[in-house]
Protein 1
Amino acid sequence: EVQLVESGGGLVQPGGSLRLSCAASGFTFSSYEMNWVRQAPGKGLEWVSYISSSGSTIYYADSVKGRFTISRDNAKNSLYLQMNSLRAEDTAVYYCARDIRKVRGVIIGSSFDYWGQGTLVTVSS
Amino acid sequence: DIQMTQSPSSLSASVGDRVTITCRASQSISSYLNWYQQKPGKAPKLLIYAASSLQSGVPSRFSGSGSGTDFTLTISSLQPEDFATYYCQQSYSPVVTFGGGTKVEIK
């Protein structure tokens, strides 16, 4: 069974840092691209970042570029999000999501077939 | 970035109703369009990928159509478990964007 379990969320002051982790199991983690997606309280979904299966290709949303860093450790089946210079507007539930960019050999682009349960990050003084 | 606009933002419907949700992209995205369902306090669930392909395990009352800039998600006969918020998402660009969501409520 595919499982994604996020951790590391919590309360942090503006300007502070936090590192989120996502532990993957039930599939060959090193074969899949991964993403972080967030959802502010009562709001819609916002994609945050993407990392390729090897870690060689990375993309960020403009809203987090220069402040957040995505990384992965395929030996540990883990995905990370280092968040620095946090702002109130970063307050959200953060989800890790598995990316299926190809189905039966057909490229479909970033599509998220499994999600974790989410971890809440609150930025407040 | 590609902007995704969903309409309506909310709707009220009864069990058994046919429901249609629309998603429009700010530029052509071919068929690189996905639909998700999200229930309160839960992670989103992939329903439809590549505009019209049903994700494994999703009931056949859900269907998707469209290409280019205009897309629709249709629920042929609304069931009690379908009351949720639905999001479209473009997968054309490496910078992924979601629509604002459509909340389907009980009439």
Protein 2
Amino acid sequence: QLQLQESGPGLVKPSETLSLTCTVSGGSISSSSYYWGWIRQPPGKGLEWIGSISYSGSTYYNPSLKSRVTISVDTSKNQFSLRLSSVTAADTAVYYCAQIVVIDWYFDLWGRGTLVTVSS
Amino acid sequence: SFELTQPPSVSVSPGQTASITCSGDNLGNKYASWYQQKPGQSPVLVIYQDIKRPSGIPERFSASNSGNSATLTISGTQTLDEADYYCQAWDNSIGGVFGTGTKVTVL
């Protein structure tokens, strides 16, 4: 059974770069049927798609975050990663990684999420 | 830009039917998905490709999508259906778009 697990620092200072990794277990990240994505949810608020990547490295980013986001993939480790630069308090959120079914672009499997707080 | 709007809240009595709408320009021309999120948990896919239910999702969850709106219907609502619900679609210009979310209260 495929599982996704986010990992990374829970506290990041303002103006620094947030870095998270999603480890995929129970299956291979190298499938053309799926993309792999990051979604975030500020406390008490709704879901926001950040970006997505294929196993070959093709990416899509949310235009509102594109200038600060980089998503990469490491197929040898079955992982994909998120980097968000120049963070502010507004980037405080629970960050989820998810598997995306390419045919119709829906998120069929989610990680448990990890809370990242931006504070000095 | 493409946006999806949902009512902030819906209240329903146990055993009754809850309907949640999701509005967006020409949403009917895209596939809509729906997610259930309970407090402190990750979202769970309950509907994909407008009307399909993933394995394990009860039959009381159904949906439709046409014109400028999609609708999620929960028939015979149970207390365990109390949660936040989000619609989602993919826009070729923007990418993944989530609705504003609807809190379903069963009382």
Protein 3
Amino acid sequence: DTEVTQTPKHLVMGMTNKKSLKCEQHMGHRAMYWYKQKAKKPPELMFVYSYEKLSINESVPSRFSPECPNSSLLNLHLHALQPEDSALYLCASSQGGGDQPQHFGDGTRLSIL
Amino acid sequence: SQQGEEDPQALSIQEGENATMNCSYKTSINNLQWYRQNSGRGLVHLILIRSNEREKHSGRLRVTLDTSKKSSSLLITASRAADTASYFCATDPQGAQKLVFGQGTRLTINP
């Protein structure tokens, strides 16, 4: 069992749909992250939240919209996605800073039709 | 862009043998971390080595860091079938406040 919980585990959506990915952690971590991972590739950072504020946006297209409602929750809102956005979306949390280990959820497998 | 390059890209060995994976990076770092990812799962943190450390051990894992060569190695001793996974190094480029992952090594342990 992982300490970072992501829902749903799988999501299939059309290009005109709006959906949201959810991530929750109860470790008191102050930093939360969204990554995108394609098959046989490393995770690519999308967004970083520190103390519930967006601190890093890696030039992600606006069809991905992150939200941090509180220190335990992180959402990723999806709208008008493209087939190339199909991937595993991973959430992680840490105490913050690059010198802390990150704890990952098991991800949401997203397929865009 | 990815900072780390790992080799080999894939490694297949017999159970009980040792497995060595290498990671090279481009810019100065504060620390380097290694993660494991089983198929269809998230990443699991294995070990962190700081830039002023040369070697670190954790159970069957041994990590070395050579900042002059900008490289690190992960040694898994007495491998087990359960070690089958992808292994990624990750660096925090100085001032970046984020991790940058290497391309990964896919390790297969044959029973």
